[in-house]
């Protein structure tokens, strides 16, 4: 059976909501206005995030990357990668945030990621210009569109917030925490609660019958 794991980045791989912190830090007034509207689903992520990003001067891009450099990765992520590699199951990172931020935080783990899909930024003008290969619907990175690229028998999603909702609704096996868990409860969509990636690894090991029932 061919399997694949799709994993969000901000607030999922990272302990904190890295991208939201960047928006609030580099565009505080617009973020204070638009982020609550996005969480309340009164404004789409596609429109709100674009407006905030394109208000940030291009000259500040190095500061954005430096701001995220020391973000903490959630415990167990490396162990999950070890487990998935042993099972020959690829992990794909799908982030609604900036590609550069993801690459800075993951660092030496990047070669172990099967693929990374995120928002690209053009800094050749005065302000950020957003480019996204998978922009569509309500999202700058339409995660369901990304998932459709991968033809496998079993898809697993891991996430934590609003940017993961559409992905979670379209995936049979979902690990959800924080805001995503709340949204899924509203939609009456079953999910597996989790706090760290060791829990994800151990659940998948049991699901795939890789450990005995009495362990």
Span of the ends, CA to CA: 24 Å
**How large a portion of the residues is in β-strands, by DSSP E?**
15-25%
Helix segment tally: 10
Instruction: Summarize the main sheet.
Output: 7 strands, mixed
**What ranges have pLDDT less than 50 throughout 5 or more consecutive residues?**
none
What strand line-up does the widest sheet have?
4-3-2-1-5-6-7
Q: How many E strands?
A: 7
Taken from the alpha-carbon principal axes, the silhouette is globular
Return the structural class: alpha/beta
The whole-number mean of residue pLDDT values reads 94
How do the SSEs run, as a string of H and E? EHHHHHEHEEHEHEHEH
Helix content: 40-55%
User: Radius of gyration from the CA trace?
Assistant: 17 Å
Structural account:
- Strands 4-3-2-1-5-6-7 form a seven-stranded mixed beta sheet.
- 40% of the residues lie in helices and 17% in strands.
- With 215 residues, the protein is an alpha/beta fold.
- It has helices spanning 18-26, 28-39, 45-53, 61-68, 77-86, 99-106, 143-148, 165-169, 178-186, 197-207, and strands at 3-7, 91-98, 115-122, 129-131, 154-159, 173-176, 192-193.
- It starts with a strand and ends in an 8-residue tail after the last helix.
């Amino acid at each position: 059976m061919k399997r694949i794991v799709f994993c969000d980045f901000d607030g999922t791989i990272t302990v904190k909501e890295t991208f939201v912190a960047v928006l609030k830090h580099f565009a505080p007034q617009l973020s204070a206005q638009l982020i609550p509207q996005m969480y309340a689903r009164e404004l789409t992520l596609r429109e709100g995030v674009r407006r905030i990003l394109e208000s940030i001067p291009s000259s500040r891009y190095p500061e954005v990357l430096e701001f995220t450099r020391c973000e903490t990765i959630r415990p167990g992520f490396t162990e999950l990668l070890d487990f998935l590699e042993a099972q020959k199951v690829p992990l794909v990172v799908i982030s609604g945030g900036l590609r550069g931020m993801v690459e800075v935080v993951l660092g030496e783990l990047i070669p172990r990621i099967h693929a990374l899909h995120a928002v690209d930024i053009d800094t050749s003008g005065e302000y950020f210009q957003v480019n996204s290969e998978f922009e569509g619907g309500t999202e700058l990175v339409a995660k369901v569109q990304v998932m459709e690229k991968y033809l496998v028998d079993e898809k697993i999603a891991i996430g934590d917030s609003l940017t993961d909702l559409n992905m979670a609704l379209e995936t049979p096996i979902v690990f959800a925490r924080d805001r995503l868990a709340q949204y899924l409860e509203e939609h009456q969509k079953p999910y597996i609660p989790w706090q760290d990636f060791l829990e994800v690894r151990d659940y998948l090991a049991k699901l795939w019958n890789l450990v005995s029932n009495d362990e």
